[in-house]
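User: Predict the complex with AHM.
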Amino acid sequence: MAIASGALTIQKQVDRLNIDNHHGTTGKTNVQGEEVQKLDESGNEVFIDSFRKCGQVAMVGSEELEGPEFTGDDHSPYLVNMDPVDGSSNIDVAVSIGSIFGIWPRNFQSQLNESSLLSKGSNQVAAAYVVYGSSTVMVIASKSGVQSFTLDTSTGMFVLTNQNVVLPSNWKYYSVNYGNWNGFSKNIQGSLIKLQSSYSLRYVGSLVADFHRNLLKGGVFIYPQDENSPNGKLRLMYEANPLSYIIKQAGGVGSSGKEGILDVEPKILHQRTPLILGNSDAVELVVSYKK
Ligand code: AHM
Ligand code: MG
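Assistant: Here is the predicted structure with AHM placed in the model:
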């Protein structure tokens, strides 16, 4: 409910960006040295506020915050890592963007601090994302499966529109930024040459949008390390882990190329990782390819 309520606010802000002069950058840079867009900043505030009001979330880690934000009390049972607005480069050009959330249980035996947010992805109890696209869709995964809800803008309610989502086995798409080709390893280049002979390329440049399409149609999302990003670009705690949890519940897998994403032992909140995500056989094709 807290995510749905925050998403409703963000969806309205997205619709009115240009009208309300809410597009463009704040002039600030975040902890990762990236430009902070106005929507990145307001998205962070909106969801922090939402979690604070719901009382269930003790602490939040966010792409937009250097350290943890306390949002609950002694009894709040969950911890959240989030990317409040993902796909920043697409905000001002009317292309789909999203929000991503990983939800972990709180360990009541130990003191809450930043390291409480550094728990393996396999310990998540749920994960969710919202895609603000041709419609606004919220997808929630827990151990009981993956459910997809569509925002009815006439009522402000999310309606269950796709129950127990499972990846189709005959997958269609692969998604990669070909502009990074020269920096890719020979193995990644070889796997892409293999993929391009049989599958269609789709790449939005918003992780949530690329992920959502591949979840419904089947496919693989690939953001490997390259010469400019030796550890990959995407972040483990609030991009790779939540989406790997969701894909697992839908029958697929997330990999760093070396190990399952959900098994990676996190060291820092803003840790980056290479990410290969999708149908298990498609991910296997990429990670096991040897030139
Ligand atoms: P952001 O969290 O600052 O928006 O960056 C993450 C985005 C992802 O949504 C997307 O998959 C990736 O960056 C695209 O990167 P590139 O433009 O290098 O292809
Ligand atoms: Mg992001």
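The longest helix spans residues 38-54.
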